[in-house]
Amino acid sequence: MEISVEVNGVTHSSDVEPRTLLVHYVREAVGLTGTNIGCDTSSCGACTLHVNGEAVKSCTMLAVQADGQSVTTIEGLAPSDDEMHPMQTAFMECHALQCGYCTPGMVMASVSLLDENPSPTEAEVREGLEGNLCRCTGYHNIVKAVLSASGGGK
Amino acid sequence: MIPVAFDYVRATSADEAIAALAEHGDEAKLMAGGHSLLPMMKLRLAYPSVVVDIGRLDDLSYVNDAGDYLAIGALTKHRMIETSDLVKEHAPLLAHATGQVGDPQVRHRGTIGGSLVHADTAADHPSALLALGGSVMVKGPNGEREIAGTDLFAGFLESSLEPTEMVTEVRIPKHTGAGWSFQKFNRRAQDWAIVGASIQQVEGGARVALVNMHPTPTRSAAVEEAISGGGGAAAAEQAHVGMEPSSDLNASVEFRQHLARVLVGRGLNEAGI
Ligand SMILES: Cc1cc2nc3c(=O)[nH]c(=O)nc-3n(C[C@H](O)[C@H](O)[C@H](O)COP(=O)(O)OP(=O)(O)OC[C@H]3O[C@@H](n4cnc5c(N)ncnc54)[C@H](O)[C@@H]3O)c2cc1C
Ligand code: FES
Ligand code: FES
User: Is B94 helix (H, G, I), strand (E, B) or coil?
Assistant: First the structure.
C-alpha cells in the first residue's frame, strides 16, 4: 500500500506491506536507526517516537496507521546540527545514560511527558516514564534529567 | 515479530466499517488503537485476513454531557478520558481507572471501545463500566441496539457483539459526588491488574466489580448484597464468593481470593461505605 508520512518534517512516500510495523518502516524504509527495538512486545519503550506530537510505541503501531500523519524520531528533536534539544542536554548533563540503548525512547517519552505536564513532581516523572525500561537500571539520573529539563528539582 | 499478511481497509465512517465486516465476515477484524489486537497479531494468536481500521473515525471521539449520563465516543482515547473534566466530575472512577491503564504511550493510542470489546477480565475499563452501571451503543447491518454492561462480557476475551457489529458509543450514568474507589494490585507500574476492584456508591448500597477474578469481568453479587444488608466494610469478606479466578505465574487461586478481599476492603473504606 502506498503511504506518505511526514518524518521529522520531510514527507516520505513508500509502498509498504500493511503488516509493516512503524518501527521497521522508520528504521528500514526511511533509514533512521535512532529508534531502537528492545522487547518488540510493547513493554520496554525503546521504540518510543512521536506521532502528531504524542509519544507512542512504534512496535505496536502499523506504518499504514501513520499514513498522512507527522512522526518525530530522536533524530528530529534537535533544532539544528550543532544544537541539542534541552532534554538531550539535560540527559547529558545529568549522566542519564549508561549503555544508551533505552535513551532515544526515554528522551522521546520525557519530551512528551513535559508537553503534557510542564512542571512535574519527582513522583509524576517516575509514573510518567512507567512505560520505559532501562536495562542498565539508571532510573535515578533519568528522573533527575527530566526534572532538570523542566526547570525543577535543582 | 510481524503479523501474518492481511488486507488493510481504512474506514471513513462507521457504516463503511460495518459494510466491510458484513462483506468479509469472520475473516475481518476492526482495529481501533490496535493496542490489544496488534500484540495478538504479532504473537499470531490472531490472524485476521482483513483489518478494518476505524482509528480515523474522529467523529466517534468525544465526551459529551447527555443529561443524566455521559456519552463517550467508542474511538475516544484513554488519554482524553483520563483528562476530561466532564468525566472527572461525573464519573471520577472512570477517569481514575483510565489513568491506571498501561503507560502514557498506551493511553495515547488505546480506545475505550477497543478496551470493552476486547473483554479482558484483567482490563480496567470493563470493571469501571460495570460499577458505573454503563452500557454501549452498538451498530450493525440491522440498525442500532444498546447492550448493558452486565450483558456485554460473554466469555474469556469474548464480547456479546455479533461479528458484523461495532460499538459506536459508551454511556456512563452520572455519579456526581458519590463515593468511589478503584483498586489495582500489580507488580510493575505499567502492568495489568493481578486483581483489581471498581467500587461505586449508589443509593442504598454500592456496585462492586472485580478485575481478573473470573473468566469475565464480573460484579460481585455477594459483596453487593452484604452491603445492602448493612454489612458495611465487613462485606469485603465475601469478595471471593462466586468467583472462579485462575492460577498463573503472578498469583495462585488462593492469593487472588485473598487479594480480592483485601482490595475490596480498602476500596469500601476509601469510598466511605
Ligand atoms: C503494554 C500494554 C499495557 C497495557 N496495560 C493495560 C492495563 O493495565 N489495563 C488495561 O485495561 N488495558 C491495558 N492495555 C490494553 C489497552 O488498554 C488497549 O488499548 C485496549 O485493550 C484496546 O483498545 P484498542 O483501541 O487498542 O483496541 P484494538 O486493539 O484496536 O481492538 C481490540 C479488540 O476490540 C475490537 N474493537 C475495537 N474497537 C471496536 C469497536 N468500536 N467496536 C467493535 N469492536 C471493536 C477489535 O476488533 C479487537 O478485537 C495495555 C496494552 C499494552 C500494549
Ligand atoms: S520495542 Fe516497543 S516497547 Fe519494547
Ligand atoms: S542506559 Fe542502558 S538501557 Fe538504559
Answer: helix
The CATH classification of domain B180-270, taken from the options 3.30.390.50, 3.30.230.10, 3.10.20.30, 3.40.1400.10: 3.30.390.50
CA of A66 to the centre of ligand 2 (A): 17
Q: Give the pLDDT score at B115.
A: 98
Quick check: A128 pLDDT over 80? yes
Q: Please, are residues B39 and B26 in contact by the beta-carbon 8 Å criterion?
A: no
State mean pLDDT over B29-43: 98
Residue A127: its chain B contacts at CB < 8 A? 189
Instruction: For B199, list phi and psi in degrees, rounded to 5.
Output: -130, 130
In this complex, do B109 and A131 lie within 8 Å of one another by their Cβ atoms?
Answer: no
pLDDT by residue (tens digit) across B8-25? 999 999 999 999 999 998
Percent of chain A, pLDDT > 90?
97
The answer to whether the pTM exceeds 0.80 is yes
B-facing residues of A in 71-100 (CB < 8 A) are: none
Number of domains within chain A: 2
Q: Do A64 and B34 touch (CB under 8 A)?
A: no
For A26, the grid coordinates are: 522508520
pLDDT tens digits, one per residue of B119-159? 999 999 999 999 999 999 999 999 999 999 999 999 999 99
Q: Which fold has domain B58-173?
A: 3.30.465
Q: Are residues A27 and A65 in the same domain?
A: yes
A26 lines ligand 2 (CB under 6 A): no
Who among A43, A55, A67 is closest to B108 (CB)? A55
Cβ contact B197:B209 at 8 Å = yes
- Strands of the sheet with A70-72, listed across from one edge: A10-15, A2-7, A70-72, A48-51, A54-57
Q: Which of A76, A109, A138 is the last residue of a domain?
A: A76
What ipTM was predicted for this assembly? 0.96
What is the topology classification, in CATH, of domain B7-53? 3.30.43
